[in-house]
């Protein structure tokens, strides 16, 4: 590092004496700026600084608004304002003057004006709009410098909506004779692409022209756009790979002008940029990768020169080699290169080497073996940063055999680390490793104890949650589960007997939960003892009220015994007058449940924390309360999105152009909107409820739903998948003798240095065990997943299944009988080919997704055999379909009920104007069934017999077919039909069997074809509405169209018109109940607004839209 | 991606700051204080890269002045380390033997140079003469 500058700077005498300095000569020290700077250099305390700057701000404020201030003075004022803001003092009063300076000043003043604007204003600041005219003027200026600075500011920040105003001018500059103008124009377009990709879609060919520009500066500017484009869509730019390779070849060969060199390395940052692009293009693409091998080889060879910047290029090169399709000799060279890094005495190189190694071992864990001694040395490095990076590397190579050593090293590090962020990160990693590879119960619980005590309350909330989930769900063997839980209980009891005051709150909460749930497993432990321990926690000053809630919940579970009733009574009395409502609620529960052991056993069944709990999600028991409140004049409930909408509408100006001429009125709200909140909460649960934990209420809720609800299926699985990506290597024999170690060492090029002592050798063998056994280099290909110790049972996910029937709860008094088929079907062209023929092929279509609940399924039947049976029955039964229905599409025929004498199956058929339920009753017995009767009913559907069973007698081995016409009375997400079949054998008593059938709302939805005008008129007339943001489908071309296509295909919606980023869609529920939908793409989401004259229909339909978009 | 560029002296006073990711004014002072403490506490033998929250700091010391660059984890630390050197070399070329006071008295020029080199958190120019071209042109016009 013998850098000229460094010497120069070091040679300078004390920098702070103002005299004899070349810099100060440029500005008279008597100038105002000079005064400010002198003042700043002489500061000794924060207090002084504040006084100085406040005085300065007053001066600036005064001068800046004075009409006599010249532009020259204004420039100086702006620099002073920049100073003040740099020190953290807001100067918002001068923002407008910065814009004025850019407008009116001469060249230098203008530049400072633009500079101040770019430093002061954030992107999206309203004042930026005032800059547009100035930029427009400067872009047209004949003075190149002005054009240049206008382009510079545009490529830093520009209001998105005003891009069209200057885009033609910027495009024009792409053909400018001066390279600097062309280069800056490309950078401006890059900025446009970043903030509004749609606006520059039409000029992609101009990007290609810029890439081929004869000037290297313009070409390298265009690489920014390409890196971005390729990141988003590597497939679209494979054809450019040879061009990038050629450019890199020329750069490496030194074909660029000399002034592009940096320390005689040709354009190093350009090389790095190109290497990044190449690795994106070559990733899992053999043919594209092959084009690159030569130049990568060349780059690796040229790396002999010993300068930092060549190492920077090398690092990028190594990463590229390990990202693209592998080639063995290149991999070898790259691996050798990494050796140069990690063995370097320069610490910065060592760091980068470790980082490269961390990246590489994910592909090839064996590489860590080559450098094991270096890794060990780094583990004891005095620099914490190096240590930390080494742990990161070890984290990637952890397996069952080295987990204890690696976790120990991590925990050691945690003891000395002071940085919160690192602690959180590392603690999370320890928890992950412990969960994945724990050798035994004891180790697992103890490690988790350390995690909880070290991580404290900084801990990511998902760690305690997944731990509790793990404990409660259990693993493969019941015996093991019991041992683990028992061990946890023992460990926590002894912790509480020690000093619980030092334990973090989160840990205490975990302890409470476990003791409440599982302390009964330890037979010698009286519940009273535990209760007394828990009560002590309540008295601790440090306990937060959330922890107290957990304590009370645990006590509620334990209080059935009766001996400690006095204690419990005491506690619940104390807290039932608490100011904290949550705490008061828990205390009430404790009080009531402790006195009523029957109720307690019912509400809190022991060891059944994972059983689903039935919840009346529509809160129908509150109906009376609500109607009373409404009658008393209370405002009707508005869902949060509606409230927000109204709030934002009243606050902000509408900056968006009026695109679609849709009437947007205040959304009306009626009493029936009551059901929205329930639905909303359910749909948010569906969209991945891992974030739900932030909801304090649920974390402190009754234990019944405590753990289960916090765990969304998505969040949980995602974490697991990520974990499985970490390298996993096959298990070797757990104990390895030193001689065996020697063998593996011998096979590796790197021999340990003589001074490395026995201890290090030992550490190495424990750290790298399990890595050497891999026979071949395993690249890209996933090694076989090892059996995980703490693998959850598959059934566990059932606990987090979303409730499927949110609106099914009975609600009496809603008997509004809807008229049937009021509209003439000629108005509505529902018999379009896509809905009648599209159905059978696609399993996702509304009919296909119907599920049937078998209430008397044969438990002994093998699943596969069962499926076969289903299939054969399906084909056999479908021949029994009545002739007029057989041409139409029908849902899968599902078996609903079967016993010795008969089988009941059913399907539903979508007719143009209605839905028909077809029930097949087949007689399995050798006798004739008599007085066979079917009864079908539903809460939400009107069921009428279309054609009843032909006779009450069913001959042996024959099939009776009954049809029922279904009409929706009240929209619901799913409709449940409950039915009973009764029959009598010739010599027997009458028998009945219940069965149920479930079909989704979508079966009743039909496309509604209307014009945009009709749509507009109808939209206005409807009062029930719902809004929600849905996820867009991944589609680079047109996500809106792709999303609409999915909705059209799966739900048979009719797309009325697409206008830009908006679309209007219509459908109806069995012909006479329309529902209109307005979609708009906004911030990467699809903002959907549904309206209908029918209460609940928008909510229910929205649910299915969400489902349709989430299911692949 | 580059998140910010800072120039601070050994007393921890900020001499230049430029953010490429919006950071509220009120949070900047606190962030800078922590960043400075992070870098100043390290000895010459220690690594020039420091992890700080969700980003990394790359720093380089010139006499009493530190240049600190905050970057994302995906960035190449060493290339940023050398970018700092390049930046200082450009300043040295423009001011002929740059000092802390040059930077203080010509904050605007230093910012203009930085704007030529880094935009939107990406390195856009590293060729010294090209970096300085617009600024020298402006100077000439102002003088002439």
UniProtKB/TrEMBL annotation, chain A:
Matching Pfam families: Adaptin_N, AP4E_app_platf
Give membrane topology per the record. Answer: Peripheral membrane protein
Q: Does the keyword Aminoacyl-tRNA synthetase apply?
A: no
Task: Quote the biased-composition stretches of kind Basic and acidic residues, using this chain's numbering.
Answer: 864-874
List all Polar residues biased stretches. Answer: 736-753
**One of this protein's GO BP terms?**
vesicle-mediated transport
* One Gene Ontology cellular component annotation held by this UniProt entry: endomembrane system
Q: Where is the composition biased (Low complexity)?
A: 822-832
SUPFAM superfamilies assigned to the protein according to its UniProt record, in alphabetical order: ARM repeat (SSF48371)
What function does this protein fulfil?
A: Subunit of novel type of clathrin- or non-clathrin-associated protein coat involved in targeting proteins from the trans-Golgi network (TGN) to the endosomal-lysosomal system.
Q: Please state which protein family the record places this protein in.
A: Belongs to the adaptor complexes large subunit family.
Assembly: Adaptor protein complex 4 (AP-4) is a heterotetramer composed of two large adaptins, a medium adaptin and a small adaptin.
State the name under which the record lists this protein.
AP-4 complex subunit epsilon
Q: Which organism is it from?
A: Fundulus heteroclitus (Killifish)
From TrEMBL, chain B:
Which species does this protein come from?
Fundulus heteroclitus (Killifish)
Q: How does it sit in the membrane?
A: Peripheral membrane protein
Where would you find this protein in the cell?
A: Endomembrane system
Q: What is this protein called?
A: AP complex subunit sigma
* Residues annotated as domain AP complex mu/sigma subunit: 1-141
Q: What range does the record give for the signal peptide? A: none
Q: What does this protein do?
A: Component of the adaptor protein complex 4 (AP-4). Adaptor protein complexes are vesicle coat components involved both in vesicle formation and cargo selection. They control the vesicular transport of proteins in different trafficking pathways. AP-4 forms a non clathrin-associated coat on vesicles departing the trans-Golgi network (TGN) and may be involved in the targeting of proteins from the trans-Golgi network (TGN) to the endosomal-lysosomal system.
One biological process term from GO is:
intracellular protein transport
Q: Show the GO cellular component annotation of the record.
A: cytoplasm; endomembrane system
Instruction: Name the domain of life.
Output: Eukaryota
Keywords assigned: Membrane, Protein transport, Transport
Give the UniProt family note. Answer: Belongs to the adaptor complexes small subunit family.
